[in-house]
Write a structure and sequence with these properties.
This protein is an alpha+beta fold. The protein has 8 helices and 22 strands. The protein has a 7-stranded mixed β-sheet, sandwiched between helices. A 4-stranded antiparallel β-sheet has the order 1-2-6-5, with helices on one face. β3 and β4 form a beta hairpin. α2 crosses α8.
């Protein structure tokens, strides 16, 4: 997929009531690499993003330029902010993006200053871009429904297996939204942080919390009497940007047969490291109104009013990371852990009810 060099792609535009700002989220252009250098970097360097004209027309000769531009050329969309304190609720504004000399209109966006709407969800999950993950999807989705995830925003990158059939089951049930995601920004890694930022800015207004995760990762509350929301409420405050969750890496069971698709991941994989990761490879629960931009394992930019990040203890909440289910590589195992097995009876019942394999 290519995009004309004179086009600026807008992922989302919205009013942020907490700080009386209009936000414009811009995606870097999708171009093929030139001379080994990602073209989107060359493009924005040549154009000098901050010298483009970003203006907001409030009507009645009230035209203002941007308040701030947040720009990371490596991983993330561009964020443009405009003051909204001189605009009344219900008023409509027009944001125009033009060349330096105003001769070329790159895009125009119309939005309204609206009262914030009531959140639809407490907790949603946003996936990394998936390709041909049909084998693992039903178990992963049903498990996370059990522990409190209310809706799934699934980013699909050109799957050709049975994924579309599985997606439709959950779309029809009102439990999933599927986004076709084939943006290519120089190299494949950019698919993931761009998708996460898209999820944040497109769907974050619907939910109190977002879980960023892959389909080989299972969020696990250690106390069966605590829900995910209970844990969140016990460690977070209104201005908390993110909750860090450490991963527990699981290895192959000795009897595992990579060609046998009849066994559930959560039943078959029991060997594990037995202790939390100590490096940067964590996953996060984020509170959208306190976050500007996300990355794969960290938040690179949070709102200036946000408080400190919170790390939940490993013996309260963790992520079981079944690395072998995706990469078929063995991880050195130090322990055996059956904690997640307490969910198997309900998990099997739910899978069978939808006609999926449950053994």
């Amino acid at each position: 997929m290519k995009t004309n060099r004179n086009e600026v792609i807008v992922l989302n535009a919205f009013f942020q009531s907490e700080k009386e700002l209009f936000y414009l989220i811009i995606l870097d252009p999708k171009e093929e690499s030139l001379n080994g250098e990602p073209a989107f970097k060359q493009y924005w360097t040549e154009r000098n993003i901050k010298n483009l004209n970003w203006s907001c027309d409030y009507g009645n000769n009230r035209v203002v330029k941007h308040k701030d531009i947040i720009y990371d050329p490596h991983n993330h969309p561009i964020i443009i902010t405009f003051n909204a304190n001189i605009v009344k609720f219900g008023e409509i504004v027009n944001i125009k993006i033009t060349e330096e000399n105003y001769s070329i209109l790159l895009n125009t966006i119309t939005l309204k200053k609206e009262f914030p709407t009531k959140k639809k969800f407490n907790l949603i999950a946003c996936t990394s871009p998936l390709t041909n993950r049909a084998r693992f999807l039903p178990e992963w989705i049903e498990y996370h429904l059990i522990i409190g995830v209310e809706h799934f925003f699934i980013y699909d990158s050109k799957s050709s297996d049975k994924s579309n059939y599985i997606y439709q089951v959950y779309i029809d049930a009102g439990l999933a939204t599927v986004i076709e995601w084939d943006y290519y920004l120089g190299f494949e890694f950019h698919l993931q942080p761009q998708a996460q930022s898209d999820c944040l800015h497109r769907w974050g207004q619907l939910t109190n919390w977002i879980l960023y995760t892959d389909t080989d990762e299972y969020l696990l509350p250690i106390n069966p009497k605590q829900s995910i929301i209970d844990i969140i409420n016990s460690v977070a405050i209104k201005s908390t940007p993110q909750i860090i969750i450490r991963l527990n890496n699981f290895a192959f069971s000795k009897e595992f047969n990579v060609n046998n698709e009849s066994h559930l991941i959560t039943k078959r994989f029991n060997n594990c490291i037995g202790k939390p990761n100590t490096d940067h490879t964590v996953k996060t629960l984020i509170q959208p109104q306190n976050v500007f931009v996300t990355s794969v394992h960290t938040l690179t930019l949070t709102a200036p009013w946000a408080s400190e990040t919170v790390e939940v203890p490993f013996d309260v909440l963790r992520i079981n990371h079944y690395k072998a289910s995706q990469y078929y590589r063995e991880v050195y195992a130090e322990a055996i852990d059956y904690t997640i097995h307490r969910y198997l009876p309900e998990l099997k019942t739910r899978l069978l009810a939808k006609g999926f394999q449950a053994e």
